[in-house]
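Per reviewer request, we include the raw input and output of the structure prediction for the construct analysed in the revised manuscript.
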Amino acid sequence: MQFTFTLPASIPQMTVKQLLEEQLLIPRKIRHFLRIKKHILINQEEVHWNEIVNPGDVCQLTFDEEDYPQKTIPWGNPDLVQEVYQDQHLIIVNKPEGMKTHGNQPNEIALLNHVSTYVGQTCYVVHRLDMETSGLVLFAKNPFILPILNRLLEKKEISR
């Protein structure tokens, strides 16, 4: 899977390492995969870790799916999903009271199963709500974005 984006004008000059670690919040393990496999391109050229990136540069990150094995989960009922927001990386849904966010047993059906069926691929719970609680729940649509969303929650840059 590839992610390509242009660095905004508001971003200061920095090294590739700083971009991945401080701006994009990419965890160490994923940064390691990107660096070792040379899956970081700036303006369509391979770059070294300490090279400088500038506003307007085009960054391309390639993630190999074999580095992120997906768990197979049973499919649920997509009609039970109340989508609030969705983009290529995440989905936010309204969890009704009385439904578990994720099952405790391997074949237990919960909101995670319904959302994965709705999206058409395995999703990942970013945070959960108790079964008795209704409200918004954030799911990552791929394993690459999950640790980034977790760090944003941890740093309180996004909240539950």
